[in-house]
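Attaching the record inline, Q. Sequence:
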Amino acid sequence: MAYKKILLVDDDEDDQEIFLSAVNEVSENAECLPLSDATEALAKLSAKEIEPDVIFLDLNMPVMNGQQFLVEIKKREELKKIPVIIFSTSSHLATIQLMKDLGAADFITKPDKYDELVKILSSRIL
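Structure, as predicted:
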C-alpha cells in the first residue's frame, strides 16, 4: 500500500531526521510530518488539523507514551481507522503482540542501518 500522508510521532529528533530522509529517498510523492509530542499529535488529529494515511509511532516518549496514544486513537471513531505502525527500538515479542492486540497495524523495530530502513519503507509501505 502506498501511503502519501505520513505522520511520525517520535520524540527523538535524530530518528525523525533519519526517517524523513529515508521517506524522501523512497518516495517523491509522500509527505511526512514529524511531531515530537504524542499529546500534541492526538490533539491535532482530533481537531482534523492533520489527516494522515498512516501513523508511525514510537513507544518510548515522555508525557504520553506510544501505548497510551495507540489506546486513545483506537477509542475514537473518527481516528481508529488510521493504520498505526509501531516504530520502536523494542523487539520483545510480548511488546509486539501487545501492540497488535491494541490495534497496531504493524510493528517495525528500528533498524541500526539507514539502508535497512530504506529497504523496509520501500518494500512494505511506500
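The longest helix spans residues 13-26. Residues 91 and 125 are 19 Å apart (CA to CA).

More tomorrow.
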